[in-house]
Amino acid sequence: MEKTERLYYSDSYLREFEARIRAVEPASGGFHVWLDRTALYPESGGQPSDRGTLDGIRILDVVDEGETIAHLVETKPEADGVKGTVDWKRRFDHMQQHTGQHVLSAAFERVGGYKTVSFHLGAEASSIDLDSNRLGEQQCEEAEDLANSVVFEDRAVKVQFRSVDEANRMGLRKMTSREGDVRLVEVENFDLSACGGTHVSRTGAIGLIALRKVERMKGLTRIEFLCGGRALQATRREFKTLEKSARLFSGSAVDLPSFITKHLEELKSTLRSRELMAGQLAGYIAQSLAGATTKGEGSKVIQHVVSAGSPVKGKHLAHALAAIPEVVALIGEEGDPARLYFAQSPGGPHDMGLLMKKVLAETGGKGGGARDFSQGGGLGADKLDHALALAERLLE
Length: 396
Ligand SMILES: [Zn+2]
Prior knowledge:
By secondary structure, the chain is of the alpha+beta class. Helix content is 36%, strand content 31%.
């Protein structure tokens, strides 16, 4: 098939065009349509493909086949000639991100000689990989400032075609190995690159170039960035989040880190004192349980169920009870799953680990322990009373 004329090469702002259909073939998900000319950009060089319509039929994908471009459409177009449209919102967004990338890559090269080894234009954010992992925060900010000054100066972005040899002699940011004529994209007095993508016509149209994440990897630094409309959306979203968060503290957004630090410290100290109080409370409950239980022969066997929300945990109570002489504590803790804690005063006559194994063999669940203390978990909530009664019977 003859070469498809790429209308976006000379006019990235073309949103509507007329073309003749050269071929149509069934394809997975619809039909592939080949035209004599197209304004739709196929996925290439890190920039995703365009969307749009052919005679009102939705375009699902645009594929670069080298010489030709295939348009994947939902249904088969009927006429020989079609009117094509480009989804401009999507395209212009890509033009902003892509031109922003040229400027940012050139800025990193000027700031520290860092070369861009790859570019990815994602649905949310874009990124470039730089050939070094030694960039500091200051250099990132310098590059960001330089890139934005090029935006503020509203420099022209021009396209020209040259032979490979000529192009490589013109001082490209990155030498090209393409054959034949190459398309050069020049950001006036700032950057010259071989690129087949779509770009805005002046740097002012890129809008703000905002660095986001800086991720150091083996020998590389990945710089995530947003341009234009995406930078605006992110700024708005994040400002709202900060405002909402600041309102929770009845303060302003700049004070958030100190508010959060202060509250985290308060929370930590509250948790510490709660732990301390729970320990003391367990001691009182243990004393009162022991006082209310009459002692037969041997040890005092004390059975108790701790409710799920109680600040005193079953483990606390079992240890507090075992601190009283001649006591065996059989403690259940409500919850799903429920838990068991068996404990005896040190050196008592029973084996709590063995007792736990025997009980769990009947009720299900997992656990075990040593002679004076054992614990079990994974019990069904309805098995707790049965487990405690069984443990008491086994002690006799
Ligand atoms: Zn480009």
